[in-house]
Inverse folding.
């Protein structure tokens, strides 16, 4: 699966709530709730980048998980997943 | 069927046959098992195939994962080393954790797991061991490392399971509780025990608020974690010192609401299973549900098929949960 890199803008947009999705992957949802809170409390570029990297990592390490695959389709569209 | 409840002799045969087992039972019966590839926690409450909900001390609930697991190791952690639990999980597999209720490692995990390195990156599922309710305060919950035969009342044991090629592990939860329509509750200081609450932003004493509003404390507080409903179940409400104690901590910065009532747990459960898990029964390798659901929803003699397992003092799906069923789904990649 061709997944965009951690530096792709969309990961930052998700953790800063500029864009929201209805997601299925349990680990990502629980983590994302924490990351959104962290990104709101500490809006430094370093922290937001770190949050984006953590969200990317949870998907990158779980590409075989059905719900993660569905989420990536939701986030990036079927042509990229 | 990879899950069943059985007597000591039958469980001993499985251990001696080299099966890889996740076990739950009363301390006395677990102590009689031979060494082998098993991990266990103490609890005498189960929902078992063919029985439904039951409390029994002379049986062991056995989950045999041999068919889907290529190899296992068992790691022991304490409150200081548990932060490595996600990092040290198998690359292709899952980690299965058991911890005794109220030990320091349990409390540390409850408060800190979401900040551990690589949280969520590898699957972590498990449960908090307990005791028969008539033994509360007299007997401590235990966990057992089958490889060594050692029983612990402090720490965590993690069975790190590498899956056979072509299989994928996915953790799910089934929580029947949803946020009610009441006040938004936030906590200036999180933890297992709180005094103050912000009710729609206004500071109040939480025990007084509960009393004044006649909150049914059998219903948990519920937080919305990006669509995942996460409960904090009430343990006690003490008017005198003004303390409210939870079975799972509340966190600063998280918005909670008191749960809507669930009128008929089994009917609601079956409805959710039909909606979200049709046909998944054969893939469910392990599940556990909360002792509070067993008690408050009177599950003795009732079934929650296709989900069977121990009734626990806390459930773990990446992080500590309460009043929630968690399950491990193994399927073909």
């Amino acid at each position: 699966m061709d997944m965009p890199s951690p530096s792709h803008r969309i990961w930052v947009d998700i953790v800063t709530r500029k864009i929201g999705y209805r997601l299925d992957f349990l680990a990502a949802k629980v983590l994302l709730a924490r990351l959104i809170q962290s990104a709101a409390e500490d809006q430094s570029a370093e922290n937001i980048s770190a949050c984006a990297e953590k969200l990317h990592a949870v998907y990158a390490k779980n590409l075989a998980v059905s719900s993660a695959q569905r989420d990536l389709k939701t986030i990036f569209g079927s042509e990229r997943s | 069927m990879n899950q069943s409840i059985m007597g000591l002799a039958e469980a001993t045969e499985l251990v001696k046959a080299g099966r890889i087992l996740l076990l739950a039972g009363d301390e006395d019966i677990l102590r009689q098992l031979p060494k082998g590839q098993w991990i266990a926690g103490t609890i005498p409450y189960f929902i078992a195939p063919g029985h439904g909900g039951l409390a029994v001390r002379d049986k062991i609930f056995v989950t045999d994962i041999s068919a889907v697991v290529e190899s296992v190791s068992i790691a022991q952690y304490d409150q200081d080393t548990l932060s490595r639990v996600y990092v040290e999980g198998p690359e292709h597999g899952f980690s299965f954790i058991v911890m005794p209720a109220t030990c320091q490692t349990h409390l540390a995990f409850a408060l800190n797991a979401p900040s551990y390195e690589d949280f969520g990156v590898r699957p972590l599922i498990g449960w908090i061991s307990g005791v028969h309710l008539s033994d509360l305060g007299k007997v401590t919950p235990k966990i057992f490392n089958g490889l060594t035969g050692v029983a612990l009342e402090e720490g965590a044991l993690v069975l790190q399971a590498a899956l056979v090629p072509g299989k994928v592990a996915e953790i799910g939860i089934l929580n029947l509780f949803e946020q009610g329509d009441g006040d938004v509750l936030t906590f200036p200081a999180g933890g297992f025990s709180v005094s103050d609450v912000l009710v729609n932003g206004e500071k109040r004493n939480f025990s007084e608020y509960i009393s004044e509003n006649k909150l049914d404390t059998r219903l948990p507080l519920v937080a919305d974690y990006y669509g995942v409903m996460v409960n904090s179940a009430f343990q006690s409400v003490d008017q005198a010192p003004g303390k409210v104690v939870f079975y799972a901590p509340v966190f600063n910065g998280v918005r909670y609401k008191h749960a809507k009532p669930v009128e008929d747990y089994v009917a609601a459960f079956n409805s959710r299973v039909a909606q979200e898990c049709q046909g998944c029964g054969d893939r469910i390798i392990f599940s556990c549900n909360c002792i509070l659901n067993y008690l408050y929803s009177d599950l003795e003699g009732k079934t929650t098929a296709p989900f069977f397992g121990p009734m626990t003092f806390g459930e773990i799906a990446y992080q500590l949960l309460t009043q929630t069923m968690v399950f491990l789904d193994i399927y073909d990649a």
